[in-house]
Amino acid sequence: MIFFLAGSVDSYSQVEKKTEKSAKAEKKVIFNAYCPVTGDEIDAEGKTVEYKGKTIAFCCKSCLKKFNKQPEKYMKNLSEDGKKFIGKPAPMH
Predict the structure, then answer these.
(1) N or C: which end of the chain has fewer CB within 10 A?
(2) CA torsion angle 21 30 61 38 (round to 10)
(3) What is the DSSP letter of 22?
(4) Shared domain check, 42 and 11
(5) Same-domain pairing of 88 and 74
């Protein structure tokens, strides 16, 4: 019986750790307020990519694809804090 309880405690700890990791993954802080490709408002529930330690969000999947081809080019469109679009918008999707 003691083995069973000890095993249960270990299992509970593993489940608790997995739950904590899931919660942290869900709480990603999005760096930018505007799409770095078009300057449109981002879809916070949409696609994101990790770029140099920052979570970058986009207005649509098409912009994510464009960004992945030339990330440096599009990151220059965002202010240092990511709150403003300071570049020239790309043609619409």
Answers:
(1) N
(2) -170
(3) H
(4) no
(5) yes
